[in-house]
Each structure stands twice: as C-alpha cells, then as structure tokens.
Amino acid sequence: MSRRPLWLIAAPLVFLLLWSAGFSIAKIGLRHSGPFTLLALRYLFAVALLLPLLPLVRPPLPRGRAAFDIAVTGFLIQVAYFGLCYIAFRSGVSAGGVAIIVCLQPILAGLIAPRLVGERVSRLRWLGLALGLGGALAVIIARSGISAEPPLGLLAAIGGLLGITGGTLYEKRFGAPQHPIPANLIQYGVGALFTLPVAILTEGLQADWTGEFAAVLLYLVIGNSLVSMTLLLAMIRAGEVARVSSLFYLVPPLSALFAWPLLGEALPAAGWLGMALAAFGVALARR
After folding, report:
1. Are 106 and 132 in contact (CB under 8 A)?
2. What is the biggest distance separating any 2 CA atoms in the chain, rounded to whole angstroms?
C-alpha cells in the first residue's frame, strides 16, 4: 500500500484555513463593491495570472469531454455556489442563516453519493456527520442567532447549497486528474463568462478601489481561488465524497475564529463547545 504524498496529508488543514478565512474577507470586500462585481474581478484576475503560465509550463490541455466536465464543475461551484450565496447576503440573509443552510452539504452529499458515485456511507460516518452538523449549528447560533430571513434570500442560499453539492458530486463522478493550470483556467474562465455580464448590467462593474479592497482581491484570487479550489478538487479525486464533504462542518467554527479579529465578532462560550463537537464529528466521519 503506497504512502500518501505529503501535500495530500496537509491539504485538509491548508484548505480549511484558506476557505474559512475567505468568508470574513469576502464580507470586507462587499463593503467596496457589489457581489457580482467582486466575483467577476476575482475570476478575471485569476485568469490573467494563469494565462501567461500556459506557454511557460506547457501543461497537457484537457480536450473534449474532459474540458466540458471541468467547465460544468466550475459553473456549479464558481457561479451557482458563490454567486447565489453572495446574493443571499446582499438580500439581507444573516451570515448564520446562510451558514446553516450551506452546512447541510455533507448530509446532502452523503444521501446522494451512494446512488450517484457508488460510495457506501457507514453508520459511524453518519454519526460523525450528525455530530458535525450539531456542532456547526451550535457555533452559528451562539455567534449570530437565528432571526426572520427574507424568503428570496433563503431560496438563493438553498440554490448555493445545491451548487456546491452538485459540483462536489459531479467532480467525483466525472472528474479526472488534470494539470491545475488549465483546469483552473477553464473554471475561472467560466466564472468570468457568467458573472461579468451580470456585474456590468446590474452593478456597472463599480468598485471602491482602496488598499483594503486590493488586499481582499489578492487573497480571494490566490488563496481562496487558485490554492483552495485546487486542493478541494484534488482531495475529492483522492478520497470519498462523504469524507471530504465532512470538512465543511469545520468551516463555520473556523470562520468564527477569523471573524473575531477581522470583523470584531467575538465567539461566546457555547460556540467553543460547538466547535469541539464539530471537530469530533469530522474526526469520526473521516475514519
């Protein structure tokens, strides 16, 4: 039995840190632009960074069905998930409300995975998923509470949940190992193709170009887009969907940690207990 490479061992921790911090940093970015403008600029800059690397690295390019599958995954995650979650925030849904809905992704993936990709979810793993959900809910409730949410915003958040779940399962079912440069280029090209026209028509592609906004874009492009998404898709191909999806239970607790210094949102004592419960659930689900 071959040993797992070092990068794959470190991938879950690096992914969780970069992905979780991205929620607070994106909220800072939304102070300076509309949601689709922020997404369009993020994808355009990612494409601009990747294009010059093609003639230098000369990676093998996916063609035909392989390129199509990458594009579909990119649409589901970059456009459906991020776009609809940003719409939910913009329409007035609280961070807690969106996080509770998105945290259902592991349960939804666990229900669909056995039928779609042939993965068996054991009783121990279901217990871990349930504990992870309970811990994540405890953190969210302790941090922001649950209040009346606008119905259209909740529908957008549910659409985002379906987007990230669909992208995860589609990648597991149809994805194949690809060089990260052309794979990311296709994904973010698809993201820009769909978000840029919406940003121009509805927001005028207007942004408050401050140093803070530039720093937000730099993080979202490098950390949250190129590095995080490459690690996520690599983990999905290397492991089972239910185990990888269980990592998302740690996103709300870790997001609360980052929101403390970045947004001044302190986490109550009950939230720390929920964080421990979520971590224990993830440990069970990943056994």
Report:
1. yes
2. 55
